[in-house]
Amino acid sequence: MTRHIAFEAVENFRDYGDYAAAGRRRLKRGLLYRSAAHATATDADLEKMAALKLAAIVDLRRKNERERAPSRRHPDFSGRVIFTDEGDVGEDPWQLFLKQSDLSAEAFRGYMFDYYDDAPFVDRHLYLYSQYFKALAELDGPVLIHCAAGKDRTGILAALTHHLAGVSDEDIVSDFMLTNDPERMAKRLPVIMQAMTETTGRTPTEGAVMVAMSVEEGYLERAFAAIKARYGSTDAYLERALGVDAALRERLEARLLD
Q: Domain spanning 14-256: which superfamily?
């Protein structure tokens, strides 16, 4: 199947269902969507999203990100919107890093490894991830998750969903790596370079910006290793940190798996 769904101005939009799962079952298609932010969505994009009949949108961004780039929604959208201002104090860590960084590929990669070490345990993420799993079990209809670029916060949550469903490690990583779509990356490169130049007063190299825009297998490995180090296993993290107990897990499996 083609996982990427083309929109005019909403990037990295794709279905992360339809993978082989545990017990010879399969994740359903058309229930799990992920994307980048929707601030630049065109009217045609909103119509296309409306046709998906989304039951909920989980916005994983910080308050300052939402204020800087407010989401556009279809006027008839009546689904649940899940977000939080939890922990939104001080300057955005990414913006602060950019101002202090030498903007090298090594610096961007190092930042991302550190980010994935910590991201599963950030209070804001714990709240949003737990609310997502509850909504996914309760609501009748597809759920869309997104952050700014739809790659890191979104990528971890999609991977956790896949793990819960019993998707293979190989497929989990493959889905994560779909963010590195060459056509999208080439289109976004000058935009991101310009944004970084405006923020820092310095111009990074194209190679460095490509690292900043991309994901690497090692990032997800670091997140799961950190989870295992703190909780013993991903299943224990899902239960103890996110509240996905046996009863909720059973409801999720019933809803998501064929």
A: Protein tyrosine phosphatase superfamily (3.90.190.10)
